[in-house]
Specification:
Helices cover about 50% and strands about 15% of the residues. The protein has about 425 residues and is α+β, with helices and mostly antiparallel strands. The C terminus is likely disordered.
């Protein structure tokens, strides 16, 4: 548009300058003719060599319309408008003036000037087309050269799929698109991490629900093996209802742990939740002659009851998995400054050295324990860390020791030990 404006301006300037030059020339001829007519002299010699060369014609008409004198080759009419007119089919630039009843008319042929205008318009039009095409080709070349990295990233992005989440866009060494590629790759990293967390969450949910559903199914099958009294059925239904409530608490704990925002929780007595879980596990471990020995204090933590049950259930499940028959699982809860320490220790083979740094990662399990998906401790860590706590391995001579630290919610009014065999 700017180029077209410049060329149009050049053409307009040429046209205006030509009109102005012609009007000055004709004005000078009219002045000279008026002087000659006023002095009573003929106008035959009033034109200069330049004016004759340009074809200027001058005619002086009397008041009655007759020609008093004339010079030039153009038969200019007495009447008519000034400007561009047609005389005998030819374009003429015309000007006139009245003097003492007479009329002086001057004119110059304009066909050559119009031909020059058309030639100039053709030249400028051709120049505009050539320049426009040249600029377009230059811009296209520059754009393609500039956006080659972006086109490569677009092609690479088309090849990305949900099956290959580890693929990334190529990062150029320098240029405007280096930061763009890095930011897009960072976005892909976050998407991949979100997808991984979602898979882990689903696996954790399945892992946590498998045990209570197995218990529910086994209890129902045992109940249906033989007729029972109404009291027995009522007792079984009560046990099933309690297990269903536990499943609901587990689901709630898993959902809470998967949320990005923190759900507030009031203080609960951690020892009370631990006693409930220990009672459930004591019945299961009795068949293997494994005892749960506890030494606990009444301490309060800001955590949901279902979260605490989930943590304790996974710690006891891990200990029960590795504890040999006839051994014991030792559980302690005590306060240390502004922290609560929960310790679960078994008398099993212990954590292999190769797994000590990854034991709390999802899907990590030892070869000695093929049962399970390796998600219990990962879920426990997620819940503990969401409550500003920490989980780690404790140092013991034999077996495995898991230590959970949680902030103390309130200062208890008194402490006491409740040994449980």
């Amino acid at each position: 548009m700017l180029l077209a404006g410049v060329l149009a301006g050049a053409y307009g300037l040429y046209d205006v300058r030509g009109d102005q030059d012609a009007d000055r020339l004709l004005g000078a001829a009219l002045d000279a003719a008026a002087d000659e007519f006023g002095a009573g002299r003929p106008v035959q010699d009033l034109l200069t060599a330049t004016e004759e060369h340009l074809g200027v014609s001058v005619i002086v008409y009397r008041a009655d319309g007759s020609v008093w004198d004339a010079v030039g080759n153009v038969d200019l009419p007495r009447r008519g408008s000034d400007g561009l007119v047609l005389v005998q089919g030819q374009p003429v630039r015309r000007r006139s003036r009245s003097i003492d009843g007479a009329t002086v008319v001057a004119g110059v042929p304009w066909a050559s000037h119009m031909a020059q205008e058309r030639l100039l318009a053709g030249i400028l039009g051709t120049l505009w087309i050539c320049l426009t095409l040249g600029v377009a080709l230059l811009v296209r070349y520059s754009v393609r050269r500039t956006f080659v990295p972006l086109l490569e990233m677009a092609q690479q992005a088309e090849r990305l799929s949900g099956e290959r989440l580890g693929d990334r866009l190529p990062v150029v060494e320098s240029g405007e698109f280096a930061e763009l590629a890095q930011r897009l790759n960072a976005l892909l990293d976050r998407l991949e991490e979100g997808n991984r967390r979602q898979r882990v969450f689903l696996a954790e949910a399945a892992h946590e629900l498998r045990t209570p559903l197995t218990v529910l199914g086994g209890t129902i099958e045992t109940t249906l093996l033989q007729p029972r009294s109404p009291e027995d059925y009522r007792a079984m239904l009560a046990a099933l209802l309690e297990e269903v409530r536990r499943v609901a608490r587990l689901v709630e704990a898993i959902l809470v742990s998967s949320r990005s925002d923190q759900v507030s929780a009031g203080p609960i007595d951690l020892s009370s939740a631990l006693l409930d879980e220990a009672e459930r596990w004591a019945a299961r471990l009795r068949e293997r002659d494994i005892a749960i020995r506890m030494e606990i204090e009444s301490v309060f933590c800001a955590i949901l009851r279902e979260e605490a049950s989930c943590i304790l259930d996974n710690l006891l499940a891990n200990a029960a998995k590795h504890a040999p028959d006839g051994s014991a699982i030792f559980v302690t809860v005590r306060r240390q400054g502004d922290r609560v320490l929960l310790t679960v220790r078994d008398e099993g083979p212990g954590i292999p050295a190769a797994l000590r740094d990854a034991i709390f990662e999802p899907f990590v399990r030892s070869d000695a324990s093929p049962v399970g998906a390796g998600l219990g401790l990962a879920l426990a860590r997620r819940i503990v860390e969401s409550r500003a706590g920490a989980i780690r391995l404790g140092e013991v001579v034999s077996g495995a020791c898991l230590v959970v630290e949680l902030p103390v919610a309130t200062v208890p009014t008194g402490t006491g030990h409740r040994p449980v065999a």
